[in-house]
Automatic annotation (TrEMBL):
GO terms for molecular function: oxidoreductase activity. The record marks K81 as: Lowers pKa of active site Tyr. The active site is at Y52. It comes from Caenorhabditis latens. Residues 20-292 form the NADP-dependent oxidoreductase domain. InterPro entries: AKR, Aldo/ket_reductase_CS, NAD(P)_OxRdtase_dom_sf, NADP_OxRdtase_dom. It comes from the Eukaryota. Pfam families: Aldo_ket_red. Substrate binds at H114. This is NADP-dependent oxidoreductase domain-containing protein.
Amino acid sequence: MSPSTQTITLSNGVKMPVVGLGTWQSSPEEVIAAVKAAVKSGYRLIDTASGYHNEEAIGTAIKQLIEEGVVKRDDLFITTKAWTNQIAPGKLESALKESLQKLQLEYVNLYLAHMPAATNDDMSQQIASPVEDIWRQFDAVYKAGLTKAVGVSNWNNEQIGRALALGVTPVHNSQVELHLYFSQHDHVDFCKSHNVSVTSYATLGSPGRVNFKLPNGAKLEWAPAPSELQDAKVLSIAKKYNKTPAQVLLRYVVDRGIAIIPKSVNESRIKENFDIFDFSVSPEEIKKLEESKISQRLFAQDFMIGHPEDAFANERK
Ligand code: NAP
């Protein structure tokens, strides 16, 4: 099987590539080149979000790749996400249509609720919309054919359970922070038992997150965290297989049956992150890697504090 065709089958039969290109913090200029380099290297999944402010540029790159005959629309898997204001009551369908217009697409392959906590447009007010109401809106856009699959991001098990209990379109995918130092076994077990596929974000430990700037130019405070790319056990497995530490961290997740969307705007790292299909990390090596027992959430999503749908409220106690 060629790397481009390695997929995970969602509960509705849709096939999702195991490896995609992440694009958070990729500027419009950077992302055009990154998407082109990625697709030419074999990537078929691109992960974006309205909140990344690069959907238009990604749409341009996709259009050019199709015009150049590099790839067909049907071979691509485009994921985008609705931000907190777009999951507020009555907002989702027009939000998805806006994303589709920017991406120059008739449908996306996966549409995610970026968060479980709705807010107003400038996030100055929390909106107490229960996840059931949010999920009914996802059910509607799926049934309208605007997306081939629907899912959630940063939702906890209980919230996903409440969406599933509605008995409408099931949650097809859960995208969560998941990496060696935040292994999320409980969440993965829960999702597997409910036939929900899982995508890991920050698989490399998101080393670039500390440079993130809010739209007003302010920087966020990030808790200091050890670098997984320098973990002694990761380095030792990398040496054994003649691969890089990044490739070992990515494979650690893929070998647990989880999709990955590493972000890079550097062509050689984009290729490196896709060149992971000639080795695997065994269950014994996964155990060994996890021996450090470090468990550190990097993305605390503090803006949810006090919201009735704060997904991480239990962890904050
Ligand atoms: P990540 O993929 O773990 O790390 C990306 C960082 O690592 C960038 O700074 C990148 O720099 C660097 N990098 C990439 N490949 C590398 C390699 N082979 N060796 C060393 N460094 C490397 O973190 P992320 O961007 O936070 O997460 C991945 C994607 O998940 C995002 O881009 C986004 O699409 C998604 N995401 C979703 C959420 C959510 O709430 N749903 C949150 C965060 C992220 P260069 O670009 O310079 O290579």
